[in-house]
Amino acid sequence: MAFQPLRWLRAVAPPLFFLGVAAWAGWSATQGDRGTNAYAARQEMLAKVESDNARAQAELQRWRNRVVALRGNNPNLDLLDERGRSMLHLADPTDIVVPYPETRKLY
Fold this sequence. Notes:
It contains three helices and no strands. It has 107 residues and is an all-alpha fold.
């Protein structure tokens, strides 16, 4: 029996094609845009964003508490005095002044 290339090609081509499709699907499942590596990266990014959001919410609450302390019929006089002196760059003669560098924010 002689070698028949067409018969050999018909026997080998479909398994090779499906093996290639399976290899592509496997690569895509791990390395693709929606693969396991991308999922892990998105989970890491989500955790960072959630921690940033929690930190921002805490800072927002601190500022709200300060604003509420300055409002109303009974404002917190110490906080009001502190804020006024800070904005006017004034100090009481009996105060102890602690200098801060220009880059550090007080508020």
